[in-house]
Amino acid sequence: MTRKMIEIVLLQIFDSFFAESNQVLSSAAEEKARLYYKSCVNYINKKENWIKCLAETSAYLPIPVLSIIVREAMHPSSLDIANEMKKNIQLAFTDNLKTLTWLDNDGAQWVKEKVEAIKYFIAYPDGISNPEKVYEIYAGLGLLEDDYKENRRRVMSFSNDSRNKTLEIFSDLHNNTNWAQNISPYGKNGLYKRCNNQIWIQAGNLQKYDFNPDFPRWVNYARFGFTIAHELVHAFDDIGRK
Predict the structure, then answer these.
(1) Where are the alpha helices (DSSP H) in 48-172?
(2) Whole-structure pTM value
(3) Per-residue pLDDT of the chain (242 residues; tens, 9 = 90+)
């Protein structure tokens, strides 16, 4: 499962990279990069069609896919450890304010209050590993076993309003935030939402190589902890501080 996810993420990285490539690459270097990218795409299109299926299923049905990943691939203690790390990073951040000679007491207090008010949404909502709760969300969808085109039509026409109403089984624990619009089963990214003072960390960040309960603590802080700290700093950059 991990190798498959890495290959999908690789293509996503290439897509993002080429959006800016004209500004950073010479034409010769860009052509070489494109040939490598094309070989990756051809490999997946011709030999690994299941990757395309996984990507499409994850895009249209992120909650069921993530539910399977949580049950099958994530350690039960991962989320608890991640939340403990988040608290420690917050504490270290606010403690460090005492060493800043250029920040007066009022400014330091404002920063401290904002940090303590940040709401975190890490990996997945509580209860997602419960198949019955997940089924409740998509009970009205009615997929078929052998008709791809019809299934795609049903998924695309599935009412967002109906789906969002059933998502309330998760929202009471997460400030009525719509997880359906923010879940990525294999995504490895973080986001600071300045309008809501929220930090979102995608589930892929809790997969091995970035996080593992069996790793030494310093390794988890160096990888997963960096992602949390990075998003925390965004709360005070030129955009986030406004």
Answers:
(1) 49-60, 62-73, 78-95, 105-117, 131-137, 148-157, 160-166, 168-171
(2) 0.69
(3) 445 555 555 555 555 555 544 455 566 666 666 676 666 655 555 546 677 777 778 877 888 888 888 888 888 889 999 999 999 999 999 999 989 889 899 999 999 999 999 989 888 887 788 888 888 778 778 888 888 888 888 887 776 655 565 556 565 444 545 565 566 777 788 889 888 899 999 888 888 778 888 889 999 999 899 999 999 999 998 765 55
Rounded Cα distance, 125 and 177, in Å: 10
**DSSP state for residue 177 in the 8-state scheme:** -
Count of CB atoms situated within 10 Å of the CB of 97: 15
Region for 125 from its dihedrals, namely left if φ exceeds 0, alpha if ψ lies in -120 to 50, beta otherwise: beta
